[in-house]
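Q: what does this look like with iron/sulfur cluster bound?
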Amino acid sequence: MALDLSALVARHQRDPSRLMEILREVMAAEGHVSPPTITALAAQLGVPRGQVEGVVGFYSFFASEPRGRFRVLFSDNVTDEMAGSRALRERMLTAFRLEPGEVSRDGLVSIGTTGCTGLCDQGPAMLVNDRAIARLTPARIGAIASLIRGDVPLDRWPDNLFAIHSNVHRRHLLLSTPLAPGEAIDRALSRGAAATIEEVTRSGLRGRGGAGFSTGTKWAACAAAPGPDRYVVCNADEGEPGTFKDRELLSLHADHVIEGMTVAALAVGATRGFLYLRAEYPFLVAPLLATLDERRRAGLLGNSVRGAFDFDVELRVGAGAYICGEESALLESLEGRRGIPRNRPPYPVTHGYKRRPTVVNNVETLVAAAFVAARGHDFLRAVGTPKSSGTKILSVSGDVARPGVYEYPFGVSVRQVLDDAGAKDTQAVQVGGPSGVLLSASELHRRIAFEDVPSAGAFMVFDGSRDILEVVENFARFFAHESCGFCTPCRVGTALNARAMKRVAAGAGSRRDLKDLARVSQIMKSASHCGLGATAGNPVLDALAKFRPRFDQGLRSLEVLPTFDLDESLAPAREVTARDDEGAHFLHEETER
Ligand SMILES: Cc1cc2nc3c(=O)[nH]c(=O)nc-3n(C[C@H](O)[C@H](O)[C@H](O)COP(=O)(O)O)c2cc1C
Ligand code: SF4
C-alpha cells in the first residue's frame, strides 16, 4: 500500500523537529526518500526543500536513490576486519555477482559497508535493512544469501540470526548492585533538588562519555539557568568504534538508566527528556519502549512522578552518523536537522534542546548518578582514585580470548584488563576508540583513569600478528568518512590522512607522507571546530611516536611528490577562524625522500 505522507506528517503534528522520525518511517515503507517525497515533506512541514534534502543526504541510514530491497552492510570496524569481515563480504558480492554499493538489476539486493555496529565482542557483524546480525561465518553468509535469493521478508528469517548475546565478564558497583525501581527517585525527593546535586558533586562523578566533565557541576549550571522549560538528554549514540558497554547497560539495566534521567530531571527541574539511541541498535527499541511504559504505569514517569513532579522520556533513534554523539550535534539531530556541531559557548546547560537549558549525559553517567542518589556520595568515593571516583565499564574486543564488558574500579592497570580477558602477545591497545590513546606493549603498566589513560569505554587489543599500519589506516578511513564536512581542517585533513595512510600501509609511502601525516594531524588538533577533528589525528600521531620503525619499513625508496597544496587548502579555514599563526599553516619544506 502506498505511503500516505499527509497522514504521516499529521501524526507527527507537522513538527519539523520530528523530521528524523518521519524520514525513518518513509525509509521503512519505501526503502528510500525520493525527490518528489522530499518536495512534499518540505511543503507539508513548512521548511525549505534544501533542509529536508540536506538531512536525507547527511545520515547514512537515509537515501534519496533506491537501494536493494535487501540492503546489506558489513561493518568495516577494525575488529570486524580482523575477524574476517572483508572475506565474508567478498563471498557475498561474488554470490550475487555485484560490486560494492551496486544494486542488483532486479532491485533485490545491494551490498556495502558501514562503520562499527557496536557488536565488536561478537563480530564480524552486518546490518540487513538496518537489522543487526552478529557472529557471521561462511555458513551464515550462505544462509543469508539463500534467504535473500528467495526474497523471504526479514520478519520471516529465523530468529536466531538476529540474536545478540550479552557478554558481561566482570561486574563491580554498577553492574552488580541492586536498585529497586523508584529507590533513587524517592531518596532524591526526600533529600531535595539542591542537596541531590550536592551529593552528585561530592561523589566526584565525572562524565563517562569521553570529556570527563563533573556531572554535579553540569547539573548545577542547568538548574541555575533561567526557566521555564528544561530538558534531560541521555546520549546513547555510542558511535565510537570498539564501544558497546552502553548496549549492555541499556539491555540489562534500562530501568537504572531511566531512573538516572528522572533523578537528573528532578535535580535540574526538567519536565521532558529524550533518550537518543544509535540506529545500529534497533534490537533495543522494543525493550526500551516497554521499560518506559512499565515505569509510566508504576508512576515513575509521566504526570506527577511519585505525586511530586512531571517528567516523561521520549525514545528517539539516530540514523547512522558518528558525529551525532557529540552533544551539540546530537541536539541538532533531535531538532530534525543535520548533525553539525554548534559553536560553543553557549553550552547545552544554558542553550541546549530548542535553545533551552539541557543536561546531556552518557548512559553510564546516568546509571552512576542513580546509584549516588540512592546510596549517597560514598558509593562512588569509596572506589577508584582521588581524581577518578567509582568504576569504569570497558568494552574489550580484538585479540582476546574473552571479548565483552568488564567493570573495574578506576585505576586498574591495562595489563590487568588484558590478563582477565585472556590476551596473549599484545602489541598494542587502543583505549577510548580511534579518538583515544594508542598504547604500545611498553605501556601496559598504565592505568585507566582520567589522570592517566582516560577511556569512554573502548579497549581494542592487537597482538603481534597485526600490522599496526593497517589498524591506523582503518581509523583514518573512519574519520574521513565521519567528518561532517563543516570545517576545512577536518574535512580536508581527514581525507588527506586517509589517502596518505592507504599509501603507507600499502608500502608505497614516502618520508613526505609521514611529515604530512604529522603536520595535518597537528593542524586538525588545533584548528578544528569540534572534538571529532581535534582527535582525528590521535592514532596517526601516537603510532608515529610509538611504532615509527614499522612506518619506516613500509616506505618505498622513490620520492613521492605532493599532489595537493596542503597550506593552500587551509586558507578558507584560516579566514573563518581568524587565525594566521604558524600553527594554522602547513610549513613548506623540501620534499624528502
Ligand atoms: C565526535 C564525538 C562523538 C561523541 N560520541 C559520544 C557518544 O557516542 N556517547 C557519549 O555519551 N558521548 C559522546 N561524546 C561526548 C559528548 O559530546 C558529551 O561530552 C557527553 O555526552 C556528555 O555526557 P557525560 O558528561 O555524561 O560524559 C562525543 C564527543 C565527540 C566530540
Ligand atoms: S571538526 Fe570535523 S566533524 Fe567537527 S565540525 Fe569540523 S568538519 Fe565537522
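The longest helix spans residues 488-505. Confidence is low (pLDDT under 50) at residues 587-593.
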